[in-house]
Design a protein that fits this description.
By secondary structure, the chain is α+β, with helices and mostly antiparallel strands. The protein has four helices and five strands; from the N terminus they run βααβββαβα. Helix 1 packs across helix 2. The longest helix has 15 residues.
């Protein structure tokens, strides 16, 4: 398995993974819009996308992180927003390795940390994240306001 930054040539393959990730979270499939969305992220460099590539050259997983800043800490931090591995490659350490790559990004950019959100129904993710060093923040309330 090879782990690396996504490049423009990966766009269609990453978009298929990204679409499957969105479908997992009960969104309608829309690969065309996924290509457009991810193309913008790569073009503007406003996210970091890392991929897992198997020995056949197929992308089997990805993680996408967005840079943020903490005013109270006065430091940069990262939002691990998307993590997905195809069903055939789950349970083989791919997610753990992608998280380790995300941790390296935090270290390399001298950020103070990273955080993520997942649904309570994501049983696999809710078991995975504590195993990789994430701690559930029970002191915070998560609020959301939507305009779309």
């Amino acid at each position: 398995m090879t782990y690396r930054n996504a490049v423009e040539n990966d766009l269609k393959s990453v978009a298929v993974l990204f679409d499957a990730y969105r479908v997992f979270y009960n969104k309608e499939t829309d690969v065309k819009s996924a290509v457009t969305f991810l193309s913008e992220r790569l073009k503007h460099r406003d996210s970091e996308i890392f991929v897992a590539e198997n020995e056949k050259g197929q992308l089997v997983g990805f993680v996408q992180l967005y840079p943020l800043f903490s005013s109270t800490r006065m430091e940069k931090l990262w939002l691990l927003n998307d993590l997905f591995v195809t069903p055939d490659f789950r349970g083989k350490g791919v997610s753990v390795k992608l998280i380790e790559i995300a941790k390296n990004l935090v270290r390399e950019t001298h950020a103070c940390g990273m955080f993520l959100e997942t649904s309570k129904s994501n049983i696999v993710g809710n078991k995975l994240y504590p195993k990789t060093g994430f701690k559930l923040n029970e002191d915070s309330n998560y609020y959301e306001w939507n305009n779309c």
